[in-house]
Design a protein that fits this description.
Elements lengths: L2 H11 L5 H11 L2 H14 L11 H19 L14 H5 L12 E4 L5 E4 L7 E7 L5 E5 L4 E2 L3 E3 L3 E4 L10 E6 L3 E6 L5 E4 L3 E6 L8 E13 L11 E5 L2 E5 L3 E6 L5 E8 L2 E4 L4 E4 L3 E6 L4 E6 L2 H5 L5 E8 H12 L2 E4 L8 E7 L4 H11 L4 E4 L2 E4 L1
Helix pairs in contact: 1-2, 2-4
InterPro entries: FecR (IPR006860), FecR_C (IPR032508), Ferrdict_sens_TM (IPR012373)
Protein name: FecR family protein
GO molecular function: sigma factor antagonist activity
Length: 387
């Protein structure tokens, strides 16, 4: 498949395609040979039952063409070509015609030699859950479907919301910890929203104090920040610190990844402007850029990145674009709360490209990976072994 058209398909699936690209995709799909390539691409990179392969290609094509025409009609009008923003569910609208087969409640994997491996331990996708540590030292478990409320705090089981207290003179801190296999949304007293990914811990004030910077600490993990402007907070800047690394914000959207098992801290700017700094240097980012703070040598570098791929976790997707298998399995291990073993270390550097949903079973995602980059895998308890 032509790399250019493959990029357009990826853009369609990840909500990045513009009108011109949609027209190119529609024209390309009018060729029967290209249609076959498209079917194979979707089957390999987007369908979630590749081991069965039951998949209505005609309906899939009709769905994508219908959506293309719908978006073209919707966004033409004022003379300006606007970027098309698709709902994340479009990806799975395309593959909604697949039929899954499960012979039992246990996960089943058919390996290359025809043998079947089962695991009695159920590995489920992550869900909304967190542990809240209050200023008095008490802990509260927050889970999907359960509510929690005090005078200043309210949780629906999916998000935690703090009520603003303008009389606050002394800063008191809470900690929100997201376990492996979890995620949660936090709304601070200034209106800032923070989406927390799996295996993440954030320290933050119960209420910000007027006249002081709005400072939170990402102790470890990954978080997406939608920060209220300084102009709405008496000029107070917003700061995120992690050890010797600091991000200073006026009002913007950005993503920070600072996992303990990685050697760098990555800050990716979506909108606005941020300054990234350590003890000796300071660099400014513009939208579409990512800073790489190397923990070992204390250096900061900046590069242009695909923002949609970096932040796709917040939209319920895994978007991998030529990512090493080691990095991909690290992401999956956090979301599904599993350990990963590479029997062949050479597999760690193999590249994979695809888009899958965070709602899918790990077995289905592993089947996709198996079909493209590895010979076999096995699930033993909560450990995935790649061969």
């Amino acid at each position: 498949m032509n790399e250019g058209i493959e990029d357009i398909i990826i853009k369609f699936l990840t909500k990045e395609a513009n009108i011109d690209e949609l027209q190119k995709l529609e024209l390309w799909l009018s060729n029967s040979e290209n249609e076959a390539l498209f079917n194979e691409y979707i089957k390999t990179n987007a369908t979630l039952n590749i081991s069965v392969g039951r998949y209505d290609k005609k309906k899939a094509k009709a769905t994508i063409l219908k959506q293309i025409r719908k978006e073209k009609f919707t966004w033409y009008g004022s003379g300006n070509i606007r970027v098309v923003k698709y709902a994340a569910a479009i990806l799975f609208g395309i593959v909604a015609f697949n039929y899954f087969y499960q012979g039992s409640d246990n996960i089943v994997n058919e390996s290359v030699d025809g043998t079947v491996t089962k695991t009695e331990i159920e590995i489920r996708p992550g869900t909304d859950k967190a542990t809240l540590l209050l200023e008095d030292g008490s802990k509260v478990e927050l889970e999907k479907g359960q509510t929690y409320q005090t005078k200043k705090i309210k949780s629906s089981g999916k998000e935690l919301v703090y009520t603003k207290d303008v009389s606050t003179k002394e800063i008191k801190y809470n900690y929100l910890t997201i376990p492996r296999g979890g995620q949660f949304l936090l709304k601070l007293t200034d209106g800032t929203k923070v989406w927390l990914n799996s295996e993440t811990q954030l320290k933050y004030p119960v209420s910000f104090v007027q006249g002081r910077p709005r400072t939170v600490e990402l102790i470890y993990g990954e978080a997406y920040f939608e920060v209220t402007p300084s102009s709405e907070n008496n000029g107070a800047k917003f700061q995120v610190i992690n050890h010797t690394h600091k991000v200073e914000v006026i009002g913007t959207e950005f993503n920070i990844k600072a996992y303990r098992d990685e050697k760098s801290i990555y800050s990716t700017l979506v909108e606005g402007k941020i300054d990234v700094m350590n003890h000796s240097s300071k660099k400014s980012l513009i939208p579409g850029q990512q800073s790489n703070f190397n923990i070992e040598n204390n250096s900061i570098s900046i590069a242009n990145v695909d923002v949609e791929s970096v932040t796709s976790w917040r939209q319920g997707l895994f978007v991998f674009k030529e990512k090493p298998l080691k990095d991909i399995m690290r992401v999956l291990s956090r979301w599904y709360d599993v350990d990963v073993v590479f029997e062949d270390k050479k597999l760690e550097t193999l590249k994979f490209r695809g888009v899958v949903s965070k709602d899918q079973e790990i077995e289905q995602i592993m089947s996709i990976i198996k079909s493209t980059v590895i010979k076999d895998y096995e699930i033993k308890g909560k450990t995935i072994i790649l061969r």
